[in-house]
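To the team - alpha-D-ribofuranose complex, inputs and output below.
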Amino acid sequence: MSTTSVRDVARHAGVSVGTVSNVLNRPDRVSPDAVDRVQRAIEELGYVRNDAARQLRAGRSTTIGLVVLDVSNPFFAEVARGAQEEAAAHGFTVLLGSSDEDAERELSYLDLFEKQRVHGVLISPNGDVDERLRRLRSRGTPAVLVDRRSEDGSLSSVAVDDVAGGRLAVEHLLESGRRRIAFVGGPAGVRQVADRLLGARAAADGVDGAGLEVLETASLTVLEGRRAGEEIAARPAEDRPDAVFAANDLVAVGLLQALVMQRSLRVPRDIALIGYDDIDFASTAVVPLSSIRQPSRLIGETAVQLLLGEAGDPGKPPQDVVFQPELVVRASSA
Ligand code: RIB
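Output:
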């Protein structure tokens, strides 16, 4: 790490420390010759500006901490991209961490971001971090929940109505004549899974003769979807569902792989399939996947807007932004 100071650069360039500071921050106020000498000295000495110290002196940071559940899930990658673009438009940088559904790692990111004095924290929580976030806020670091609504309204949040999303998915399958429906996803304790299942049940309960079976998975991954698909494909025809609603697109992609591998099965002829998120893989799957679309980039952008609003006016009451999910019908359930 460079230990060269501004003073070393000034001495090397034969100018004052103030001139070096002006070249770094207000180059329009410095003669071209002085700019050239300072920039050459920076190159030759390998000087690197200490932004963290500068931001601390200025009493504010230009970084925003973002913790997502699983950065390998394209949904969260899109949320992060939306957050990054909105942050950059306001002169901020996003520091991204992935808890990978590990509560300890999640808390260590929150501690790190607080020590870094970030401008604020955005988090798609794995565990119940509301109390930790309220403490963060009380010490001057605003926090916004992403993809999760605040239990008691004490924190701003931005999410999609997952109960409505689950209902939309199963209503679509019912309208296409399916009646033996399976919900595949888990763990059941994950709030997004529980809400989607709630909506799915509500839709199935509304139609005579419709049944909803739940196959809980250990996580929302392609591998777990594949395992569930192999289990379904191995059943005798009369025991198989005629439609599956996967709790997210990664699970749906895994299910599709397993069902397609079973040569005797056809999607959607034998089993219709719908996922959730509408990630890019959904539309390009071997049988294009129907999905419940979440406005993932907009979620990221909105989270940054809520955070900057709160940072600018700490007395501002928390805001709950809820987007509506959208049904996207493709070949897997048409
Ligand atoms: O984190 C699991 C799921 O919840 C993601 O696939 C996305 O749907 C989020 O809402």
